[in-house]
Amino acid sequence: MNRQHDHHSTRPWHWASLFILILLAGALLGASGRALACGNNNVVHWREIFHDQGPMFDSNPQPAPNASVTLTLRVCYHDITSANVVYYDASTGTTTWVPMSWASTDPTGQFDYWQGTISDVGSSELQYWFQINDGTATAWYNAAGVSSTEPAAASADNFYIIPGFTTPDWMKNGVGYQIFPDRFYDGDPGNDVTSGQYSYGGCETEQHSWSSGYTSVEANVSGCNSEVFFGGDLVGIQDKLSYIKQTLGANIIYLNPIFESPTNHKYDTADYYTVDPAFGTSTDLENLISAIHSNNNGPEGYLILDGVFNHTGDTNCWFGKSTYGNETCSVTGAYQSQSSPYYDYYTFQTWPTNYYDFLGIAPNGIPSMPKLDYGASGSAVRCQIYACSNSVVQTYLLPPYAIDGWRLDAAQYLDAGGNSGSDATNHQIMQELRTAVKSVNPNAEILGEYWGDASAWLDDGTEWDSAMNYNGFTQPLSEWICGEDEKGNSASIDTAQYATWLWDTRADLPWNVQEVMTNELGTHDTERFAQRCSATNGWGTYEGLIMQFTYVGTPMIYYGDEYGMMGGNDPENRRTFDWADATTANAGVALTQKLISLRTQYPELRTGSFIPLVPDMIGDLYGTTGIYAFARVDQNHRLVVVLNDTSSTQSNVAVPVWLAGDAIGSTVTDLISGTQYTVQNNGGRGYVNVTIDGHYGAILAQ
């Protein structure tokens, strides 16, 4: 089922409904702007209603087929007279109602919890929502929030139950660190590419000194940036694992491509079965993986490799258009002969010069990246890339490598016959790839690259586990904090728009997918976050880090973002790592270390529910400007995160922590600063008056 929405679009009903909600809320609010007492008075109070599939509200968020699931709904104390879980089975086209019953009252006395059980979820995807009644009044609630009208049965905004679909727990509980290998650390100078070592694409290789890469990675010859090398390698990554795993505390390594290629970025693969000599050997890769997996040098870790499977390089022997260095091919490539055994690996419009490539048809597009033709199910390309036991995908999932997952580059484009992807064939390929991956390692991660709403690949559990969260994290965060999009273009949103964007993009995805979406401040394809936020004098980085480590999903640090590495778009987003900054004397590194430690200590930051506080669930900003606040809660703990997106030195903020269940009179501690606050009584509701620096935040633990 395709629930795909336009890229980061707000749903048309949402803004109109938000206006209606605020008007309706006005009828329920006193002069103070806070809820009056609830009761059975034919009015359903919307502000207190909450459910997601966190551990407090869903007994079995990843159920096996035919299992039972108990769903919990939070409402205002003594407010409702009845409620129902309503679920829709797309395979049968049937809708079923499950009556709910009162289960308990929150210890603060502000909320009631109602429960209903789906006794058998069957084996096909279900969508569900809630019907909530107070006498003659009715409200409806799904992943998009509260409404006065019933959601459509097949709405993209409903909650999901997908029997048998699980995402890797190690991704839910881990912290990622992305490395562009040539620019991280030179552990073996003996394998460095030297100036003039070989030519490719009309460019000579250029060796630059490591320190020169702190400020620029531009080539000496215009247009030859892909041939600039600094010497980073696999041995260097292993040498610096203690920084990643011990100093920072991250445990998931994602490497940009490492396979043989003439360029520094390696997105034009010459040989998928050979580690690029500038990065080391297969033994170096095995040793690095072993060190990552070990718990002797920090937490047990995991490795995700970059799979560039939409296209090869033109130097790949399967294609055979170009050579470089000492490369030799023992086979005849598709570009060389129509009788080549690899001719059907590619699609030619007019052989040999007009072939489908990454972005078009040669000689246009990117001719150095000829596009693979996946043909029909069972084709040689499908066997070679993922389906057969000796395929690229399975080779590295199996010993002696035993990597833990694949990031799929340009994943939506994989297709047959030169087609551009995002169609039925692309989804068939991804379904087959998932089957192949999970047959080798059921706990392996499949991480897709997609810049828009990726729900078409994520909403039924048959393709990817997750996607890079450009759409639901990187872009909205950048526009809110920096006033620029991820590419550095001027684009600004206010706090209400930011909150709505995040809510909408969460609603697009199943809960267990949300938990493993990778949240990046930036990547090798964006302008550096510190560059975008340069007007904040570094404080934007701190605010971004706090959001990154407390939001739903898996934090993924792009090497250097933790210390505020600067750099524009490609290639300047790929500067060399300045190891003088890799210390807790750097404020960003120290904050990153603390945030990772907190995320490790508090499970609610990893898998807990996400409850909006400011703006709250009906859009009330509580009179604040530039303040975004939310709670992460589970059965045992609650944390409240407050971000101050203003340039003022400090802001005093009244945070409605009663929506998180914090009791009046209790003490909360800011886990970042150590400052303690008392929850104050304001109109029968609990608030915390917090002082926060501009472009900074607080994490309040009760």
UniProtKB/TrEMBL annotation:
Keyword terms of this UniProt record: Glycosidase, Hydrolase
Domain of life, source organism: Bacteria
Endoplasmic reticulum as UniProt keyword: no
Sequence ranges assigned to domain Glycosyl hydrolase family 13 catalytic in this UniProt record: 178-599
Gene Ontology biological process: carbohydrate metabolic process
GO molecular function: hydrolase activity, hydrolyzing O-glycosyl compounds
SUPFAM superfamilies on file: (Trans)glycosidases (SSF51445), E set domains (SSF81296), Glycosyl hydrolase domain (SSF51011)
Gene3D superfamilies: Glycosidases, Golgi alpha-mannosidase II, Immunoglobulins
PANTHER family: ALPHA-AMYLASE FAMILY MEMBER, MALTODEXTRIN GLUCOSIDASE
Protein name from the UniProt record: Alpha-glycosidase
Source organism of the structure: Metallibacterium scheffleri
